[in-house]
């Protein structure tokens, strides 16, 4: 169990703490509670090596008590224990909280990748408003009983869970579901449970379906105001079935193009499969299911694919930080879909969506957010019009000539590598160019994708 949790070191929901640090522990408790929850594991370092002296349970308990006194209000925690190579290790799990937590010095923190990130005033107000809206996915569905649940889908999930964790679930299936918030302690069916495992969740939650429309043109309307779409499909069922049937419908309608790799001709879909699937999964996992009369809509046009989900951006997420930050409106839905394999890695989907689109020769995805809707737009590279670059960056103060060259290059070519940047400005050192690009990233103009030799940069 521990090897699986810690194989990548500290992460969005894991904090490895080799030595007891009350200040760091308090910050992490608050950050986890304000985000999607997480687990602090004591006595093991970032390289998964055990600490020289593994903290004793009594020492951990004392440090935890001191850290909790710094949290306002106090954060709920659950004690956990593991053993690896006959070494006992201990951890504290922090569930996501419906309250807004801060430290005793007033700081409000959230979890961002493996860091505890402080929030500013506007972001704090946005997060507080999201939390005060209630935990809808855990509400009991009036009139729903166990007979409304599909036991074959539950068995499929349990099989996936056991495969992922490499051991059998020791208790009965209902205990597993209870641990994920699918049913209450009294066996009542929650919104999350019905959405994930219900036979007909739309009978109770009619807003939880999806509409797929295929248009051969660029608009839904055709000539003379008549409908311009060729196919309209309404997809219902529990979320796993909704995802699979929607994905199949989109993939079936996407065009293919011929590419030659290593002297072999291959068929390539119109859009990178991961980018399409990520947009679809995000729409299903993060939509606001409280909004009635609004459905997820997928529209495939000749020049673009649009995936729209009801509900604005959750928590402290904005269009400016959507790549770097992670916050789930429905953490239990997200957790089950992650355990099921529909979500590959928490918090890493948007940047890979960008990476796959750019690597396939497409423009970056576009994101549109309103108070009650969020849309991902994937553009077809074949019909994209180049953006004028003459005076785009003249309003940005403090940019040098090299940086403006790089920004224009990215605007024309979608991305730039370190090697291409050196070719644009061969008169300066590689270190100067690295600092140039780091400054563009810090100012929020550019995103860094990949690492080491595979690193490249795209416009934000």
- Under the CATH scheme, the architecture of the largest domain is 2-Layer Sandwich
What is the averaged pLDDT score? 83
Strand content: 15-25%
The CATH class of the largest domain, by name, is Alpha Beta
**What sort of overall outline do the alpha carbons produce when their principal axes are compared?**
globular
CATH topology of the largest domain: Heat Shock Protein 90
Describe this structure in words.
- The protein has 460 residues and is an alpha+beta fold.
- The protein has 4 domains: 2-128, 2-Layer Sandwich (Methyltransferase, Cobalt-precorrin-4 Transmethylase, Domain 2); 138-204, no CATH class; 210-383, 2-Layer Sandwich (Heat Shock Protein 90), CATH 3.30.565; 401-459, Orthogonal Bundle (Arc Repressor Mutant, subunit A), CATH 1.10.10.
- Helix content is 34%, strand content 21%.
- It has helices spanning 2-6, 22-34, 57-68, 121-132, 151-165, 173-179, 191-197, 201-204, 239-253, 273-286, 331-340, 349-359, 401-413, 418-424, 430-442, and strands spanning 14-17, 38-42, 71-72, 78-84, 87-94, 102-103, 109-112, 115-118, 210-215, 229-235, 256-261, 264-269, 296-300, 304-310, 366-370, 373-379, 416-417, 446-449, 456-459.
- Strand 4 and strand 5 (87-94) form a beta hairpin.
- The longest helix is centred in the middle third of the chain and has 15 residues, at 151-165.
- The chain is globular.
- The two termini are 38 Å apart.
